[in-house]
Specification:
Structural class: alpha+beta
Shape: globular
Radius of gyration: 13 Å
Number of helices: 2
Helix content: 10-25%
Length: about 70
């Protein structure tokens, strides 16, 4: 099982907690965010089977950049 290290994130509203994690080998990220349900956005993304997309605050991208991994 892969070990995850949390790079950042938090509960801004006390209920939802977008976060970003790096996998222990440093070769991938796990992103926790808000589920996309807007049919127009989903249609534009044209996600293939087995993939999904989530929305995260821009501040999490900055966390990855600050960690030297973005």
């Amino acid at each position: 099982m892969a070990k995850l290290t949390k790079l950042g994130g938090g509960c801004q509203d006390g209920r939802t907690c977008p976060a970003v994690f790096v996998v222990d080998d440093g070769d991938a990220y796990i992103v926790q965010g808000w589920e996309l349900t807007d049919p127009e956005i989903l249609a534009e993304l044209q996600l293939p089977a087995g993939e999904s997309a989530v929305k995260i605050p821009a501040s999490l991208v900055e966390v990855m950049r600050s960690a030297g991994r973005g």
